[in-house]
Design a protein that fits this description.
69% helix
Length: 169
């Protein structure tokens, strides 16, 4: 469906007072067009309308209209800068399309995220994501945990099979 057609349905939903379907349609559009700042602003306005200040801050973070209360609520819900940056769900660096307030706000967030983890922020075709691990040692802990869990599961399955076979005999 064309973006304009979906936006027309959103407007029709809102005129009828159907907030939830309008939110769902905007969420779908936002997933399809993650870098569309106008869609983000519409979504933020809808969250403002229903009183969800934290989500209004999240979706309005890249707009000039987001108030300090909304941004603060968003930051309280997502205390880590890395987490806030990831939930913004932007696909490319939007800095050149932002106004001065939103640009400065995003710049501060990226700086804080880099302070938390210097290798964190790399803009790719799928948005800001952690950089790839530098070596196999970085993934060793995760692999060991997975191996231990796998061994436990295999052991439980074998014991279960033995128990079932004993019951059957």
């Amino acid at each position: 469906m064309a973006k304009e057609h979906v936006l027309a349905k959103v407007e029709a939903d809102l005129r009828r007072g159907h907030i939830h379907p309008a939110m769902q349609r905007l969420a779908s559009l936002n997933a399809a067009y993650p870098d569309d700042l106008e869609l983000r602003a519409r979504r933020a306005a809808l969250y403002r309308q229903v009183g969800n200040v934290a989500e209004a801050g999240r979706w309005g973070f890249l707009s000039e209209e987001a108030g300090a209360e909304e941004i603060a609520a968003f930051e309280r819900c997502r205390p880590g800068a890395r987490q806030r940056l990831l939930v913004l769900k932007v696909a490319t660096d939007p800095t050149d399309r932002l106004g001065p307030v939103a640009g400065a706000r995003l710049g501060q967030l990226v700086d804080r995220a880099r302070q938390e983890d210097p290798s964190l922020v790399d803009w790719t075709n799928v948005g800001s994501r952690p950089a790839e691990p530098s070596s196999w040692r970085d993934e060793l802990g995760c692999c060991l945990v997975t191996a231990v869990i796998g061994a436990i599961l295999v052991t439980l399955i074998v014991l279960g099979l033995i128990t079932v076979i004993r019951w059957a005999l």
